[in-house]
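Can't paste images in this forum, so I'm doing it all in text. The chain is below; anyone willing to post the predicted structure tokens underneath?
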Amino acid sequence: MSKQIQAVLVLYRMRLQDSGTYNAWNAAGFSATADLMVCDNTPGTPGAPPADFQGPYLAQPENPGLAKSYNLALQRASQNGATWLMLLDQDTHLTADYFEEVGRRAAELADDEGVVAIVPKLVENGMVQSPHMGICTKTWTPLPLNASGLLENRGQHIYNSGALMRVSSLIAIGGFPEDFWLDYLDHAVFHLLREHGGRVFLMNASILHTLSSNAAPEPNSPAYLARHANGLAAEALYYRRYGTPEELRWYRRKLLRATANAAIRHRHFQLAWRTLKAALQVRMTG
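Text version of the structure:
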């Protein structure tokens, strides 16, 4: 009998047995409920799973990114008749309450095809970071920690960590857009799911999650500079492809504020110049 949930865990420069997510999965005994596929995107010598791991383990030292890995898992989910695709990061702090509710909601909402995703609240420093309102919000008010149920506001952005997405709905939108190979992939795919009429269910469960976007700038780090450049390019692509005229105006203002912050507060002139160039390339419409 096929399992209702196909999960995918993407690794990067970490062994599977060192992943807090994988250890939480094992502690919850969730293999009885879901099939787990691991994509190891660590460059160099291919890794190997621990001896007790029974699922598919794909070593991808060329690091094709999240989107390609998710699409491989989506293909497996479709072939195996799974209803949901579960997206896992290697370092998300998953709890027993999360796993219990995931299993319960997946069964309860399996036949409600209007619900295209089931997501937890991602919390950092006591504040809900996902779902969060988009850049056009003048006064940003985070969701309360006890929020749950169907999300009515389509302007909310949702991160993919710990999310369940309906397999048939993902297939209907063509899977995960691979030009968002890493950054803004979650923004893009949730936008597409909702544009096709889908609704998102917010779980009671909260999970602790450290957002890379909240990290302090490290302008002397080549890895940080590369990630910053990729993030800027992905963000620009997202708003160019999906943004409304109002969002484009707010996006350019956001970049100009970030330019000033980098130059004046942090005196990171390389980041400031790069961000300013991105702002100047935003073409206004409407």
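Residues 122 and 128 are 6 Å apart (CA to CA). The longest helix spans residues 222-242.
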